[in-house]
Amino acid sequence: MNFIKRSFLSLQSRKVKSLILLAIFLVVTNLVFAGFTIQSASSKATDLARKQLGADINLRIDINKYLEEQNSNQNANEARKVPSIEKKEADKLKNSKYLDHYNYLKSVIAELKELHNVEPSGGAQSFGPNNNLNFTLQGVRDFSLLEAAQDKKLKLVEGEGITSKTVGKNVAMIEKKLAEKNNLKVGDKLQIGEVMDEELTTKELEIIGIYESKEEAPSFGGQSFALLEPANQIYVPYSVMNSLENAIYSLKDPKDIDAFKEEAKKLGLPAYYELDAQDNVYKQMIGPIENIASFSKTIVIMVSIAGATILGLIIMLSIKERRKEMGILLSIGEKKWKLMGQLLVEVLCIAVLAFGLSLATGEKVSQKVGDNLLSSEIAKNEDKPEDPIAKLSGNPAADVDPVDNIDVSISTEDLGKVGGIGLGIAMLGTILPALSILRLNPKQILLKDE
């Protein structure tokens, strides 16, 4: 009789054991599906989180690293001044292949002679020893690349804006309300008076553009300062100042952030220069996702090992019960490889059926497992107290919500992985126990059965 036909007859005659094997295979395939699909969904969620945060990297001074470096090089009692970013250092990154565009920023509190500042609604306090520092000079490389400009909160309404072509020129952009209050127009001059903690390259600026702001002035306990009023922000080329405060590098793709940072390390920037891509916010958002992705890998390994072991034990017990059948078949001339093939066909038929059923149940099981694991991880993170050292250092944890949902779906790649693991489990669970019997000759098998 054909060994494949014997396999189907054997399955029909051993319905209970076949159902037990089917149940075990179904559990194994569902859990392995859960492991792989959760990993895939986690990877998509982390990519989405990074895209939501954008591809902007901020070059700035890491105060803690700077102080550590100074402590090792200077007398502890010697006065220190926090450095600014040097343009020559910032320029090292502007030719990166990952870069789309960049901007240089610097803000300076200043007095503008014979210019009346715009008062915020509710009034505002003046700043400075003579209450004359009511304006902020915002040094930029390109006005249009500012986040507020890209969000349509700042809009050029007359003249031209600050661009890379205006760098090196003594020009300025003023807000529409400030222009109206002081009867200013494009082409008029601004005279700079006192400036706080900065040496400027000029004391006179020509107005080349007028912009309109939809931003709101921040307040502190109900108090506001005139220099923080959006209408009192005067945009100038960063070259008007002698130093930089920040350099913003916008990459073509958020996936290139790590590569860009590695490239920057090789350029020899000072150790206290920090490239920040909102890393703390990103880690806070994806923390729970990374944890369940790691756990899902463990699920795949543990379930595969446990599944192969359990199936192997069940098949071994089944083979021992069938020693007489095997001994008789071998004694009448049946080949050992055909007996092995019969056992494999039996197990593979059950495995294929379980795999087919898991296609209908796997996605729902995976989504349920993923949601429960993610909820548990988020709850753990919420229970963690805030780091007091980080809070005192001025770098408290960002107030952002972690990724709280994952969209689990079974892909072709997942099907291939689960199918491969299922096939491996079926073959190992069948061949190893079968070899322990089939290595004997028919007489030895029949004597053992007695």
From TrEMBL:
One of its GO terms (cellular component) is plasma membrane. One of its GO terms (molecular function) is transmembrane transporter activity. It is a multi-pass membrane protein. Residues 19-266 form the MacB-like periplasmic core domain. It is found in: Cell membrane. Pfam families: FtsX, MacB_PCD. Residues 299-442 form the ABC3 transporter permease C-terminal domain. It comes from the Bacteria. Keywords: Cell membrane, Membrane, Transmembrane, Transmembrane helix. The chain crosses the membrane at residues 299-319, 339-360, 418-438. The keyword Transmembrane helix applies. This is Permease. It comes from Bacillus wiedmannii.
